[in-house]
Amino acid sequence: MFRLPRLPSALLISAAACLLVGFLMNAAEGEEASPRVKKLGLIGLDTSHAIAFTDIINDPKADGVLAEFQVVAGYPNGMPDNPFSWDRVGGYTEQLRQKGLQIFDSIEAMLPHVDAVLIESVDGRPHLEQARKVIAARKPMFIDKPMAASLRDVILIFRLAEEANVPVFSSSSLRFSSGFQAVRKGEAGFGQIKRCLAWSPMSIEPHHPDLFWYGIHGVETLYTIMGTGCQTVVRESQNRVVGTWKDGRVGIFEERKGYGAEVEGTEKSGSAGSYEGYKPLVVEICNFFKTGVSPVPKEETIELFAFMEAADVSKQLGGKPVAIADVLAKAQAEAEKKYQELKSNP
Predict the structure, then answer these.
(1) Which residues have CB under 8 Å from 2's CB, separation 6+?
(2) pTM for the structure as a whole
(3) Which residues in the chain show pLDDT less than 70?
(4) N or C: which end of the chain has fewer CB within 10 A?
């Protein structure tokens, strides 16, 4: 009977070692090919959004882009003169600690432990200083509504982030509801939009312009559908603001219960959709952190804040029309002055 020749023991050991090395190399290559889960940090634990966004991203059943991220850390922030902030920060911080987040005593201490940041502070006033620290660390960031407590600070945040090549965007969750997005993309059958009425609640916080605090949800819906190009704003009443776009289109914000919009188009008129919760926004946030590309043009965010600030100016003038260009020019001058101050005293 033919028998295979017996191989020397040393040769057998060498062959086995080569197989083992090859297996380990392939395994390592497989690990490198798998996307690394990126770590996210929260600044401001004084809003239910911090809880809700964490639950969506950290859900064990999360799939798609959500599965590529994990919220791992947080820095509490509270504004003593704002009960909506100060009275809630302790409870929300403890809830997030129980969910496994590491809680840090400062933004600077947290930043080395995360890849990107969500600024969630419910009050917009500290957002500029918080954003400056994130920009200095070169971390991409999402800034929850309102992006800031003034148009000046919105302009400044964008300028500082651009200079440092740090991706940033801000939005209300209303923007990404599927119905409003379908209208924006021309997929809802309305034809050319002639008029849009968008609504949301409009509770007021005294440290912010009237619409910044909660009316921003309705204004975000309005701009999702209308886009940029508003020229004048009139505050017709405490709870109704009318904007006229350069092509004659009319966009209206109105205070109502709930969220929604009605559209008049060249082909048909009717409801533009309804609110669909936080998840569509959170998916967009994670896509943004993955690509570094904002889903909302900077110019649109700046103009919608100018619209809201113009509404306050019109109110002060007894309902007279206010030009968006004038509001922007004033805010840009203020932003330039503040910018020079920051450069002189970093």
Answers:
(1) none
(2) 0.89
(3) 1-35
(4) N
